[in-house]
Each structure stands twice: as C-alpha cells, then as structure tokens.
Automatic annotation (TrEMBL):
The lineage of its organism: Bacteria, Pseudomonadati, Pseudomonadota, Gammaproteobacteria, Vibrionales. NAD(+) binds at G179, P180, G181, V182, I183, G184, L185, E186, G269. This is Dihydrolipoyl dehydrogenase. It comes from the Bacteria. FAD binds at K52, T142, G143, S144, D311. Residues 349-458 form the Pyridine nucleotide-disulphide oxidoreductase dimerisation domain. The active site is at H448. It comes from Photobacterium proteolyticum. Disulfide bonds join C43-C48.
C-alpha cells in the first residue's frame, strides 16, 4: 500500500472540497484532495443548474398558456417535445459540468487521489486499499445524498431521485413526488407544466422550507391550484405493478384513492455523507444525526485538527454556503494552529417555483424560539395580489412577511412567496447583513412601478407596528397607483 505524509488532506472534491483545497494551498503546497466519485459538484451535475434548465423549459410553456389573458392568442396546439426538452437540459448540464472540470484539470495530478477515504485515527486515512495518508489536518467535505425509506427500494427502477431525472431521454406520463421540499416543489411543478401528470405527497404538513404558518398556508393553497398536493398524506400502500407503481392513500377528505404512476420521485431530504468514513475511529463529537459538531465561524470540530464544510456539515446545504464553508475550513486547516473566524453571511435561500419562495435572515421559527411570547418582535405584511407591477404582469400571487425587533427597530428576517422573490431576498439579505433598522431600509430608494415597492409596503407596515413610524396609508399617493 502506498503511504503519504501531508499537511492537509481534503476528503471530497465538490464545491466545498474544491474551495477547501484552494484555500489550504495558499498556506502550504502539501495538500491532497480525495474523491471517490466523479468531479463536477452536485450543483452542476444533478442540482441547481439542471433543475433550473428544466424549470426554464416549463416557464416558457406557462407563458404561452398565460398569453390569452393579455389578449394574445397563440395559434394551434402547444406541442411539448420531451426528447428535445431533455436533450437541451443534458447538453447545457454537461456544459456547466465542463466548466467545473476545467478547474479540476488545473489541479496537479499528484494532489488528486481517487477512492473512498476512511479514518484510522484523527490523523490517518486509508483510501480504498491502495493508499494510506497521514495528515496533520483534515477537512471533511463529503457532501450529501438523497435519503428515503429503505422499503421503497422494492420499487426498483420505478423509484427515482433527482439525479435520475436529468438522465431521462424523454418525459414520462406521470410521476408521484414524495417530499414537498425545495427539490420536490421545483421538479414537481416543472414536470407538471411540461405535460406530466403530477401528484405530490408529504408528511407533517411541511411545504417548502417555510416556517411562517401564514406564508406556508398560502404556498399550500397556491400549489394546490396547479396540482394535487397533500402535505400530510395518509398513505395506505405503494407497490410496483409491472412497469408502474400503484399508490393507495386517503385523500384530504378522507376518501380512499388508488392511482397508478410511471415513477415515484423520492425528494424526502438529504443525508450528510459521513456515515461511511469510519468516524468511530476518531475522537469527533457527533450530533444526533451522527454528524461531527463544528464551530459555526471556524468550522473546527471537537478534534482540533479536523474541520468540516459543505453539505456534510449539516448546516445550510446550499452552494454559496458550501463555497464559504470550504474556504473557511481550508484556510484554517492551512494556517493551523492560527485559526480564524471566517465571514458567515446572512442566510438566504430560495425555491425556484412559481411563485418563488425565499427566506432571509432569521426564520419565523428561529425568532419565536429565541424570543418566545415576550412580544419582542412584530411582523410586517404585504400581499402581492393587488401590488401594481405584479398585476401588470399577471404575476400577482404571493405574500411577504418581514420581522422586526421592538425597541431597536432592527430588521430580523423575512419569509415570502411571490414574484421575483429571488431578487427581493437579495435586497433583504444585504440589509440584514448590514444590521439595518427598518427605518434605515425605508430610507433607501424605491423606483415606480416595480415589484420591490411591495417590500416597502411590508416595511412600512412593520415600522408602524413597532411604533416607530406612522400608521399605514391605504392608498399611498407618493408611491403612485397600485403600490
């Protein structure tokens, strides 16, 4: 078996691993990166980029279907060629993966080790049966994988995960989506708009990542206007019959239903890839999910020489978070023992459904858990149903809740479903990271007519409820009509 002695070993070659490798190399040339699967990152291969390609195709169909409401009547039947849809998705997906691989190719071959790593102790790793590495510091950046009940494996190739969708050559006739989270909502709605019959099921009533009950209820209603969604289904049975899956369940009225679908899409969450690292051979302290506990700002675990980053850290499984965490963990592994707190940005997340869902800063659940029932915060609200620019574009669905602290007037966070929520969330995230008060945010410029005026309406409502500004004016003449 080959033996290596290095300063830093990075386990994983995805977004976090690549970031950690490059950050560590700024301090030492003695760095290796271990990867057991294909390079290309989850985002580029099976995550954010291919899903947005599918969503873009679905949005083009939706715009044609909406055209008659503007007095524009496309001639003839809308024909969706599933093979052409999936061909573009795969071609563009491969293009994005290619960009990542170009960066990987620039890494010296001696720094890349192929295989799956396991811990022997806090400083020693074996890679498959060919290499043993002694590393002064180690970064765990092994990512995550889809998680679903093991019994579903009885469905064979009729059970798919999001990875499988992007390998389709054509679109199926019907899909049952289990899990109305980010992945389930995005793919389920896109497939529905592309002509696939879709039903969606969940457990516990959760819709998307939302925690605000009012915003979640609105989202549940909005999605149900487009396809059947039961966020707390009473499932009776699910079994494979030939090349299909039969699902028996009680609907929302308690009536027994039997449906048959081509595929079951498991979008029931993701599991950090730390269970096959033999971490029991280390001194790492683990949380209730078996994930190493790490400092939020340094990404250092309970073992001072081991750091963790990205989806494997079980913090916020998003690409920009993985990139930030990778840089912090790699930098600290490289400069150890002179570790430093890295910049952790305000939280921002989005679901690219229609309307979009977005969350910024502290969630409603986090605020209520932290502050309890002390009456220390208020919620400002706006509906997009009568918001001027939204109605002009016939995109007038959704609501925005913004949260502010009594006394200080500080903006705490927001949850929303609405048009262009991805852009509204960025404005609010910048304000949150700068620790702005609601009054300071209201001093910022707002053009007319734009969807962003809805943010101002919600902030004015919040400012009034915090007793820091005047009561809301129903028809604000300084804003122009429909704001």
């Amino acid at each position: 078996m080959k033996t290596l002695n290095v300063d830093v070993a990075v386990i994983g070659g995805g977004t976090a691993g690549l970031g950690a490798y490059r950050a560590a190399k700024a301090h030492t040339d003695s760095v290796v990166m271990i990867e057991g699967g294909p390079y290309g990152t989850t985002c580029a291969r099976v995550g954010c980029m291919p899903s947005k390609l599918l969503i873009a195709a679905a949005e083009s169909v939706h715009q044609i279907e909406k055209a008659p409401a503007f007095g524009v009547h496309p001639q003839g039947e809308i024909v969706i060629n599933g093979r052409e849809v999936m061909d573009r998705v795969k071609r563009e997906r491969d293009r994005f993966v290619g960009f990542v691989l170009e960066g990987v190719d620039e890494i010296p071959s001696q720094d890349k080790i192929s295989g799956y790593a396991k811990f022997i102790d806090n400083n020693t790793l074996t890679v498959d049966d060919h290499t043993q590495i002694t590393a002064k510091r180690i970064v765990i950046a092994t990512g995550s994988r889809p998680a679903y009940p093991a019994v579903w494996n009885e469905l064979g190739d009729r059970l798919i995960i999001n990875d499988d969708v992007f390998n389709w050559d054509d679109l199926p006739s019907s899909v049952a989506v289990f899990g109305p989270g980010v992945i389930g909502l995005e793919l389920g709605q896109a497939l529905k708009r592309l002509g696939v019959e879709v039903v969606m099921f969940g457990l516990g009533g959760q819709v998307g990542p939302l925690t605000d009950p009012a915003v979640m209820a609105y989202a549940d209603k909005a999605f149900n206007e487009e396809f059947y969604l039961d966020a707390d289904v009473r499932l009776e049975s699910m079994k494979r019959i030939g090349d299909a899956v039969e699902i028996q369940y009680l609907d929302k009225d308690g009536e027994f239903k039997v449906i048959t679908v081509d595929y079951v899409l498991a979008a029931t969450g993701r599991r950090p890839n730390v269970d096959k690292l033999a971490i029991e051979n280390t001194s790492l302290e683990l949380d209730e999910r078996g994930v190493p506990v790490a400092d939020h700002f340094t990404l250092q675990t309970s073992a001072e020489n081991i750091f963790i980053a990205g989806d494997a850290s079980n913090q916020l499984p998003l690409l920009h978070e993985a990139a930030d965490q990778g840089r912090i963990a790699g930098d600290n592994a490289g400069r150890f023992p002179d570790i430093r707190a890295g910049l952790r940005r305000s939280k921002i997340s989005a679901v690219f459904s229609d309307p979009q869902i977005a969350m910024v800063g502290e969630t409603y659940k986090e605020i209520t858990t932290r502050l309890g029932n002390c009456g220390c915060f208020e919620t400002g609200e706006v509906s997009f149903e009568n918001q001027g620019r939204s109605r002009v574009m016939l995109r007038n669905k959704g609501m925005l809740h913004v949260y502010g602290e009594h006394g200080t007037g500080r903006f705490l966070g927001a949850e929303m479903m609405g048009p262009n929520a991805e852009h509204l969330a960025h404005l609010l995230a910048w304000a949150h990271q700068n620790k702005m008060t609601v009054a300071e945010m209201l001093d910022m410029p707002f053009y007319h007519p734009v969807i962003e005026e809805g943010v101002r309406t919600a902030l004015r409502d919040l400012n009034a409820k915090l007793h820091l500004g005047p009561e809301m004016i129903k028809h604000c003449l300084d804003c122009g009509p429909g704001c």
